[in-house]
Design brief:
55% helix
């Protein structure tokens, strides 16, 4: 008897070949080679997105499928659905994080320049000038 009652969801089978079961009935973690194939497919897909100026593959799903059909197919074949969703969201989050960090650096430089804490070459002055 499991923790949850058995439910049936159309299109999803419990005997999926991409999710091997352990002897105790639970799912096994992906092997290293499986993970590496997923990472390679993900990187190829993201390179294609970069080449086509697409940041958010979730928002621009149709466009990404039209411009990167081979990469999408390999990515969806080699990675678990939960990983696909996670990597797409992580890509956007990391982009936003990097943009925020760059903005903070620019704002700090501007504040230092206005306060006279920058030398002639743009470097910060030390305690002794």
């Amino acid at each position: 008897m499991g923790w949850l009652p058995s439910i049936s969801i159309p299109g999803i089978t419990s005997s999926s070949p991409s999710a091997p079961k352990a002897p105790d009935g639970g799912y096994q973690a992906p092997l290293r080679t499986t993970r590496e194939a997923c990472y390679e497919s993900r990187d190829a897909f993201f390179d294609c997105l970069d080449a086509n100026d697409i940041l958010d593959a979730n928002k621009h799903d149709l466009e990404s499928r039209q411009k990167c059909p081979k990469e999408v197919e390999a990515y969806e074949r080699d990675c678990a659905r939960s990983w696909i969703k996670y990597f797409k969201e992580k890509r956007v989050m990391e982009y936003n994080r990097d943009q925020t960090i760059e903005k903070i650096k620019r704002d700090d430089m501007e504040a230092d320049r206005k306060a006279g804490r920058l030398g002639r070459g743009g470097e910060k002055k030390g305690w002794f000038g």
